[in-house]
Amino acid sequence: MAAAAALAVSLGACGAGKKKSDNSSPAPGGSGSSSATGSKAITIGTTDQVVALDPAGSYDNGSLLLEDNIYQFLMNVPAGGKAPAPDAADKCGFSSPTEYTCTLKQGLKFSNGDPLTADDVVFSFNRINKINDPNGPASLIGNMTKVEAKDASTVVFTLKNPNDQTWPFVLGTSAGPIVDSKVFPADKLLSDDKVVGSGPFMLGSYNKNSLVQLKANPNYTGPNKAKASDITLKYYTESNNLKLDVQSGAIDIAWRSLAPTDVESLSKDSNVKVLTGSGGELRYMVFNFKTMPGNNDAQKLAIRQAIAYSVDRNDLATNVYKGTYQPAYSMIPQGIADATEPFKDTYGDAPNKDKAKQTLTAAGVTTPVNLNIDYTTDHYGPTSADEWNEIKRQLESTGLFKVKINGTAWTTYNAERVKDTYSIYQLGWFPDFVDGDNYLGPFLAENNFVHAHYCDPGAQNRPCDKDGVLPLLTQEETKAGAERTDAFKQIQEKLATGTLPLLPLLSGKQVAVTGKGISGVQDTLDPTYQFRMWLFSKS
């Protein structure tokens, strides 16, 4: 799992390239050509930045926003779905425990007219490993030992670990776009403006992280045919300018990321619609088992439990984030298959000062407990300071804690936390794919990104068994159906009732704001974070 890469790039990526001023708007969304379905041209605004449009060199939300619409994948999660379905593939499945076979649909073509064959699929996955770009998704296909074309339409992946239940999801991630082997070099990245895919759209004009025009791909024959023939993306550095432009009608859709106060303000404006949907983003608290307060393991656990009893998620979601986030009671957010709510079952959905006090007293902890809590000022949005100041207020209001919070820029913050400088600190997570495994494995492994020291001694990049999760993780990774669901349920419960290395706080809702006459956006607001622009139309 590329936990570090996914997190570091998904929110903090800065694309290179010349930028235009946020005030230099394209022509209003209402003008422009029409597609065969009669939709007018659409303009979308976003603060997400593109790292690269060559899939071998990108692993971030901003790049994937365009890649999802330019390329096809063997498998992908359809709008509103929770499981992958065939995209460029006609069918996929395990042909043996370590072989996963996909058969392509007939007549696939890239936007330049080149046929898409099994050789292109093999080329696409092999070049990701060969280039192994530091910003690329090679870590996502770490379970692949080789990929072969059995014939022009059959691809076979050989996997290290048998019956990998996450592999169908991986095929729809940043590692999955199929590229044209006649256009893309095998050993280096292709420049953004020259990329060719077989998805619903193709690149028109391209000014990186300023203005990008997409055109409906005339060679696309799949089920996701674009309703609008022209879509322009305008890139912003300030969310306030994004708000002003959607409010004035200069753009048709505002997508990632508006401040919660802006969303609240726009919800009262009759000229726009604020749309929300389930999201897969998670915000959580990390406890460093080495450096957190407490004289022994029992006291440290009691302090973690007392914090869990004292935090008010509903207050954070409502008053700090204005409803753009919802309380999270598991490391698997609601909206993801197999999510349960064990932290609500164990600690309640409202603060319980008496339970917190009893827990500390039973462990012999002297109160108030001095807590140092760290957060990053620039990596998880401008509202982080408000969030953690409110958490400080909540904890101190119990009389059981004395809290000092410290805000640090991400570059320094990320370096310091892995040196064990911090004892309790903020992290966030955007999933690599919408499966419960992606919210568990990356957090419990030895030397994992969260750096909680939950698992240290000789575990060979596997979870330690402090909470009895090792066999359960193996079960959810290799079993299907009821056995997998039961494993997920037990792991989530053990994290809440056991040693409590992490405290889930909030999960992000999908939020988009649309102007008049826009349809289809609501349908794409799901935990995959795929912005399926082929669904959009304007009357």
From TrEMBL:
UniProt cross-references to SUPFAM superfamilies, sorted A to Z: Periplasmic binding protein-like II (SSF53850)
Annotated protein name in UniProt: ABC transporter substrate-binding protein
Biased composition (Low complexity): 24-38
Family: Belongs to the bacterial solute-binding protein 5 family.
Taxonomic lineage: Bacteria, Bacillati, Actinomycetota, Actinomycetes, Jatrophihabitantales
Location of this chain's protein in the cell: Cell envelope
UniProt KW keywords: Signal, Transport
Chain positions covered by the region annotation Disordered: 14-38
Species for this entry: Jatrophihabitans cynanchi
Stretches assigned to the Solute-binding protein family domain: 97-448
Signal peptide from the UniProt entry: none
